[in-house]
Amino acid sequence: MPPPANAASAKDATTRRRRTYMPAAERRKQIIAAAQEVFARSNLKGARTRDIARAAEVNQATIFEHFPSKEALFEEAVVKPLIEAMRGMHARREVYESATGPDEIAALARSSGERHLADMDRVFPLLAAALFSDPDQGRDLYREHIVPLVRARGDVLDGLTRDGLDLDFVGLAIFGIQMAVALDRHFDGGIAGERNGDLTEVAEQFTRMATGGFARQKGETNINQAIDKAD
């Protein structure tokens, strides 16, 4: 005699629960990963917790078991990993100081440039969501976290840049180029290459710009010297 329909249904539901059971830490990671996709697509104000729940394959109640609010989830899914990724972009000055000559320095610069461009390309959706979802939050994030990291990048290059260059501006310029490359790859891909394309050639151009400038030299005179004379 077959079991009652309601008993079979309850058994199926129990089986599904067993199949989808996940430790709390793994479930939290799953929610964060889904939230990153939704926030990057819809920003903080436009994202709905039910959309995040659907992407994470959980119900909304499960989200609030792990995070007290949508804003707290945004902080954990977007702001924190963005800051950690940007901290990891900063090369150590000792690596360059241990180089034995210009060729080794150039090789280190190319490798570092490619890695940093790839990091920015990866976190660009989070960066855009974090900066532009909410004006006040974006301003605080920039002032409290990004500006110190940009200045730290300049400080790393102290003693390695040409005379007359402000280190804070150098750090800002490098950050700006990296962000512009990521912007182009995400929305166009014409100048900086396709979204999933190789960054080697772009990194080569970036390194040339960062280490030698873009002004053409003629004899012993170049644009930098002309600017110095004008000052």
What can you see in these coordinates?
With 231 residues, the protein is mainly alpha-helical. Helices cover 75% and strands 0% of the residues. The protein contains eleven helices and no strands. The protein has helices at 5-20, 24-46, 49-56, 60-66, 70-88, 93-97, 102-132, 135-156, 167-187, 200-212, 223-230. α7 (102-132) crosses α9 and α7 crosses α10. Mean pLDDT is 79; it is low at 11-19.
Write a concise synopsis of the structure shown.
This protein is an all-alpha fold. It has eleven helices and no strands.
Name the descriptors.
11 helices, 231 residues, 75% helix, single chain, mainly alpha
* Oligomer status: single chain
Point out poorly predicted stretches.
Answer: 11-19
Mean pLDDT: 79
For the largest beta-sheet, the strand count, sense and barrel status come to: none
Q: Helical amount among residues, as a percent range?
A: over 70%
Q: Helix-strand pattern, N to C?
A: HHHHHHHHHHH
- The fraction of residues in strands falls at under 5%
Number of helices: 11
SS-based class: mainly alpha
Total count of strands: 0
Shape: elongated
Gyration radius from CA atoms, angstroms: 24 Å
Note the topology.
Layout: H1 5-20, H2 24-46, H3 49-56, H4 60-66, H5 70-88, H6 93-97, H7 102-132, H8 135-156, H9 167-187, H10 200-212, H11 223-230
Helix pairs in contact: 2-3, 2-5, 2-7, 5-7, 5-8, 7-9, 7-10, 8-9
